[in-house]
Amino acid sequence: MISRPAALVAILLAGLWLAGCGTIDRPEGGVLRLATQTWRPTEDPRIRAGDVARVEALAEEVGDGLWTGHEGRTILALSGGGANGAYGAGVLVGWTESGTRPEFSVVTGVSTGALAAPFAFLGPEWDDELRGAYAEGRTGGLLGWRSFAALAAPGLFDSGVLKDLVEDYVTEDLLRAIAAEHDKGRRLLIVTTNLDAQETVIWDMGVLAKQGGAQAVILFREVLLASASIPGVFPPVMIPGIDAAGQLVEEMHVDGGVNTPFLGIPESLLTVTTPTRAPPGTGLYVLVNGQIGRTERITRGTLPAILARSYDTMSKANLRTSLAVNLAFAERNGIRMYVAAVPDDIEASSLDFDPAAMAGLFERGRTAGAGRLAWTEMKSLAPPANAGETSPGE
User: Fold this and answer.
1) Residue among 76, 85, 127 nearest 263 (CA)
2) What are the residues whose beta carbons fall under 8 Å from the beta carbon of 87, sequence distance 6 or more?
3) Rounded distance, CA 90 to CA 95, Å?
4) Helices marked H in 228-273
5) Cβ atoms 78, 287 nearer than 8 A
6) Distance between CA atoms of residues 105 and 115, nearest Å
7) How many helices (DSSP H) and strands (DSSP E) are in the chain?
8) Which of 24, 63, 158, 351 has its CA 20 to 30 A from that of 180?
9) What is the DSSP letter of 300?
10) What is the mean pLDDT of residues 321-325?
11) Tell me, what's the pLDDT at 223?
């Protein structure tokens, strides 16, 4: 019997020949110009990977924060993983119940991690929103036939359900709360991929939140939607930007996980080889919305099964590489690094948005978080186990 993940891949493949019918009208010569006049925003919240000065400024800001004062500061990095984000949401709620969840200096989110990041950033008072988004049936129909949209859009499924979810939770009240925390020196960073430039874009959501008003709310929603828009599955999100000539343009943004599984230590810092000892308590927590370890099983000899298995294998390899690079930096600088991930011995799929399955995954995460079993301190380049040797916060 074909598995549910492989069946979903089969559905995607069945629609590929139709996908060419759904397009976004863009001039062949380049990005669509929305206006010919120059435009100067008050402060652009995006930090492009190719903008060396902005990236280095962010790295310096985060680095200074990690090494300032007598007590170390902490980073929480939420990875991509689609429906598996329910596990990560559960871990956060359970962590609150354990009484050991810290207030993070920096929270970053990629893909499904981007959807949870604002609530994780704002703390336990927003746990009900986390539960509502991931464990109370809001994802029903996300990849259903009623959402099939290959004939009308450059994605096999309509993003209407996802848009509704984002719009319900991203309000002016949410932005005001994020702006207040930003003023305290804390940072909320979301990652998208700009397909036009083929580069990672880091969005400083506190800068955006501080601008306030309806336009800030709209852009905030678009960034979250873009970061969670798996290419080919959901349509890309067109976001206004400024080109080198100062003209207003439309950029095509998709899932932040295209380039990076999670955003931990900024890339500019990772290449620094001179150790700088961090104060006691400095920590990096990577919440993986997926599985890390290799799982042996017979791969069916069908195209959907082969593609699903290949994608899963590639994603895990990329994730393990990113974990190893971040760990090497952490070990050089005295930072304690913790990882939580979906246990390898349970069935989990990034494309299984069935509400019952996600509610069950959420509960598994909540139980692990409440029992202080979700987190493992990484002390070598080997993938971590799923039961923590050292509980964070102790």
Assistant:
1) 76
2) 289, 342, 348, 361, 362, 364, 365
3) 8
4) 267-270
5) yes
6) 18
7) 12, 11
8) 63
9) P
10) 92
11) 95
Q: Is residue 95 within 8 Å of residue 373, measured between CB atoms?
A: no
| Tokens of residue 8, six digits | 């979903």
Tokens 């719009």, residue? 167
Q: Is-contact 158 203, C-beta < 8 A?
A: no
The residue among 228, 207, 266 whose CA lies nearest residue 116 is 228
Judge whether 167 and 221 are in contact, CB under 8 Å: yes
Copy the structure tokens of residue 382: 């080997």
Residue 22, pLDDT score: 54
Instruction: Give the residue among 77, 46, 58, 24 at the shortest CA–CA distance from 288.
Output: 77
- How far apart are the C-alpha atoms of 353 and 11, rounded to whole Å? 14
Q: Is 50's pLDDT higher than 70?
A: yes
Which one is predicted more confidently, 60 or 263? 263
Q: How does pLDDT run across 108-118, given as a tens digit for each residue?
A: 999 999 999 99
* Helix ranges, the chain (H): 4-19, 52-66, 85-98, 112-122, 127-135, 160-169, 172-183, 205-211, 213-227, 267-270, 303-332, 355-370
User: Which DSSP symbol is given to 277?
Assistant: P
CB atoms closer than 10 angstroms to residue 31: 17
Q: Of 223, 28, 197, whose CA–CA distance to 111 is shortest?
A: 223
pLDDT of residue 16: 47
pLDDT of residue 126: 96
